[in-house]
Each structure stands twice: as structure tokens, then as C-alpha cells.
Amino acid sequence: MNNIQILIIDYGSQYTLIIGRILRELGVRSIILPPKKVDKWLASNTPKAIILSGSNYSVHNEDAPDLPSSLDISVKENKYLILGICYGMQLLAYKMGGEVERPLSNREYGPAEVTLDTKHPLFKGIPEKTEVWASHGDTVVSLPVGFSPIASSSGISAMTDKENHIMGIQFHPEVTDTKEGKKILQNFLDLASCVKDWSATDLIFSIQNEVKEILNNKTKETGIVQNVILGVSGGVDSTTLASILVPVLKERLICVAIDTGGLREGELEELKINVKSAGVENLFIIDAKDEFIENISKTIDGEDKRGEFRNVYKRIFEEQIKKYNASFIVQGTLATDIIESGKAGESVMIKTHHNVGLSFEVEDLHPLRNLFKYEVRELARSMNLPSSIYERNPFPGPGLYLRIVGTPVSLERLELVRQADKTVADIIKKYKTEKEISQLVVALLGVNSVGVKGDERVYGYSLAVRAVQTVDFMTAKGYYFKEEIVNEITNALTKHKDIVRVFFDMTPKPPATTEFE
């Protein structure tokens, strides 16, 4: 990548790639590197600004990641501006002579209100008091010499040196829960004299050129024209990627879909329609329901189920790679998947994703790896795909297998959840609230309880209905249904002879994730 304006140093925060996403949204290119790769990059590049991310570490941990040795923290120079976020601010303060402690009264997890020094250009055009998202146990309690506080909540929430060359923010401006976060980052870009240099059209060409270059190099090396396998689900990610690659790969692109047995009602037909809309000619559907059920039913542990699904998924694609003599497999993996799998820079693993980190015999390409869901939706619009695709809610690869929680998977339970999902989705469409919801989860919980139906005792299943609202799926708010919708959903679901109770889950992310498993 040439002429990168912003370097983001990744200290392992779950939100690091969101920083890059927001900068792209503001039209500015950036590169994300772990600390150990920064010195080499800075040796041949001079960015306009550097952002230090948050982290799951404390600066007092023995193995805490440090500042790169070549990072210029001289406040008198103007080589590039530096902004530390959360751990990034704490690390800067600590290394420059300030004090970082863990006072109980200053810990903040979740929503917080801060008071800003609106005279400072970092907070230009922002109300003095604003809501932010914080997630920190450590706090800067004493600033380095020459620094001043420019925001406060339960403690120091932001700092700057006199020349505004080095700044720090204790909260997270990159997440959507910080109401003025995007404006704060725009102000920082303005301070660094950044210019817009990113667009959706440029990104589409970049993806096409990246894949073409990889394939052409392989063709030159082997003298053989390369086929590519693309795993498609009918969702926005894989369908959009297919539409981007079809024009450049043509008949070399072979799309493979798997009927896992965990699909929703009518989903296979929807998949065929969506993939056809993307211009795909070569679509092959593999029926593997029995194999998935047999393997996944061995365990009730969510992570183990993901692992069993992953193993079958990999075996099937390895078989297809050999069948079609493919040299590459391409997948619509997003930044969110890579982050939660612990494969993004220094981030920790939250849960395994079936299509991340697989060791195929051929090269595994993830052209959407740096993008978030909303960005892929923009690419789908740019590719003139139908709104039914770019407005489609996400659905996990393992599908309904992850929505049978705490009890073994069976054909009967899969069908129960499948019909319950359709019932709830139909009610939501009836009330025209589907566009208010980013993702809908209907899950069978392994908690049987006693109930009364027709004056008789029954002992049956409990279902959970969970809807969330989010932009990037890194944070999410629980959706609160109106009372009439709650009543109709509950009445409709409990008509089933084996369903006794219905729970509604509005827990935000974090601490929860979108799916139960």
C-alpha cells in the first residue's frame, strides 16, 4: 500500500479494526500493524498521524506490549501526530513519566458521560457534555510533564501536550456508542492535515486487482490457468464478493454452497436466487445434512459445535478443490469474524469462526478481511445488487446448530427452531419492524420447565427471542419489542405442543455476543 496517511498500531483491542473502518468511512486510508512490525514499516514510510489502539493488557503487566522503538514521541517535533486510545493513552502517559493506576472509583465499563474542553481542536463542534463508550480498569491519574487534561469523567478522560502533537483519549471514539466519536476522529484527521483518498469504487477495483494479481502470478509460476472455489451462502458477504469477482474471473470462478441442515425455512431457494443475481454461472450445491448432524450432535458445548462444523466444512471444500482442480479458495470473511477468532493482529479469541484459520492445501483468500458488514452493503449497492441482498440480516455459517443451546442437536429440534424462526420473522414483517433490527436470533434453550396446556401438566422447551441493533457488529444494543409484538410472538410460539416458555433477551454486546454460541 502506498501513501498511507494513518498508521494504526494494534495492541489487541477488539475495536482496532473499527478505527480503520471509521477512517475509511471518513475517506482516509490507513494501515493496521502490530507493534513488532511498526519499526520496519516506519523505516520507509512517514504517515501524517499514528493512532495507538486499546488493549486487553495493563501497562503494568510484565508482557504488556510496548511502544515501538522508532516511534517519535518528541513533543517538540511535528513529524506526525499521535493519538492514544484507552491503553494507547495509558501507555503514552506511562512511558513519558505520568502515572497509571487502577483506582476502583475510576473504572468504567460501558456507557459514560464525559465533560470536554471544547476549546481544544480535538473536540471542535462537539457539546461540552457527551455520551461515550468506555472499557478500562487502568486510569491515568497523573499526567506527564507538559501535558494538560482536556476531558474528564470519573477521572482524566483525555490529555494533550502544549503543541497538540501527542494526544490521548481514555474512552473509545471508534465505537458507535460514542455519540460524537466520528466527529472526534474527523477533528484529529483535520489536525493531521489528512485528505480524502478512499472510495467504494476504488475498493472494488482493489479487490479485483488483488485477486487477479495472485492468480496471474500462480499461472506464470505453473503455466496452468487457475480455477477458484468460492464458498457462497446467499448472504450479503459471499454474494457481494461473487458479484465483484465474476467479471474478472468468469468461468474460472466456481461457487459452492453447502446444505448443512442448519438452514432456515426457504433459505436454499433464496441462496440460488441471490447467487444468480450476482451473475454466477457455476453454482454447485452439496447436500451434507446427515454428516453435519451426526458430528455436531456429539456435543452441547458451543465452541465444540463450532469446531465440529468447521471440520466437516473443511473436508467438503477440500473435496471440491480436488474435484474442480482449483488452486485457490476464496471466502467472504469479514473483519468481525477475524477479530472474534483472534486472527486480527494481537486481538484475543472470542469464538471460533468456521471459515477463519483453516489450513487448506491451496491458498485461502479473504478479500473482504478488512471490511465490516455496513461496508460490504455499500459495495453491494455499488454493484447494483438487489436490496433483498444488501438489506439481508446476517446468519451464522453453522446456522440453526448454534441456536440449539445446552441440549443435543436432533432433527426434531432443528425443525422446531426452524419453524419458530419463521414464525417470529413473519410476525416482525407483519408489523413492518424488520428494518429496525440488525439481526434476529430465535434459540431453543436446554432448560425444560413445567407448564399448563388444556388444564394438563406439560413439561417442555423454552425458547429465547433476541434481536439487536448495530452498525458494525462489534457492539450492539438489545432491541425492545412493543408489547403487542411480544404478546403475539409468545402466543404463536407456545401453540406448539412442546414449547412452554418464551424469553426475550435484550443484553447488549458486550458483555454478550450476538449469538448465544
Summarize the structure in words.
This protein is an alpha/beta fold and 517 residues long. The chain folds into 3 domains: 6-191, Rossmann fold (3-Layer(aba) Sandwich); 200-390, HUPs (Rossmann fold, 3-Layer(aba) Sandwich); 411-505, GMP Synthetase, Chain A, domain 3, CATH 3.30.300. It is 32% helix and 24% strand. The chain has 14 helices and 21 strands. It has helices at residues 16-25, 35-42, 87-95, 181-191, 200-222, 236-249, 267-277, 289-296, 302-323, 335-340, 373-382, 387-390, 411-430, 483-493, and strands at residues 6-9, 30-33, 49-52, 81-85, 99-101, 108-116, 129-136, 139-142, 147-152, 156-161, 166-169, 227-231, 253-259, 283-287, 326-330, 363-365, 404-405, 439-453, 456-469, 477-478, 499-505. The strands form 4 sheets. Strands 2-1-3-4-11-10-9-6-7 form a 9-stranded mixed beta sheet. Strands 14-13-12-15-16 form a 5-stranded parallel beta sheet, with helices on both faces. A hairpin with a 2-residue loop joins strand 18 (439-453) and strand 19. Helix 5 packs across helix 11 (373-382), helix 6 (236-249) crosses helix 11 and helix 8 (289-296) packs antiparallel against helix 9 (302-323).
Task: Name its key features.
about 525 residues; alpha/beta; Rossmann fold; GMP Synthetase, Chain A, domain 3; 3 domains; 9-stranded mixed sheet; 5-stranded parallel sheet; 21 strands; globular
